[in-house]
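If you are new to this repository, start here. Below is one unmodified record pulled from the training split, so you can see the exact layout before writing a loader.
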Amino acid sequence: MLVKLEDGIPSEWPVTAAMLKHENPNISFPSDLTGINISEYGFALFQHSDPDEYNAIYQTVEEVAPTLTEGVYVQTWRISDIYTSEERLALEEANAAQLLVIRAEEHRGKREELLARSDWTQVADAPVDATAWATYRQALRDITTHANWPNLVDADWPVSP
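And here is the target side for that same chain:
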């Protein structure tokens, strides 16, 4: 890929070698332009790049003019903060609080599902250890008092008998 130069400044990128050849019809260019000075024809080599990591919730990324690095124009990105540090902190705190609410709702749903799946064990003539199942079901009901609530991991959940 190439970059088109106007007065030595990138004006269009990326462009193909076909544009170079089209704008210079009386010049014969090799198929591999690596190592060839094509700047006198108003073009230079171009290299794609990915932007650095950024947080799309709090930052924007935009492409800016490529920078000349070791004879090749490299695609360049500008990452900008959307919010001031105070605004970002407030948003992060609000998002964290909202995430805790969502996790709590999800875990309550899982608890209700596990309780419903074990309802059959509470029938008087169920062929199970009634005490063990009652203890398990009570542990499910008490899960909201667990030290890790609502940030539970699999190991925090009671195991069915």
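Two things worth knowing about this chain: The chain is about 30% helix and 25% strand. Residues 85-156 form one domain.
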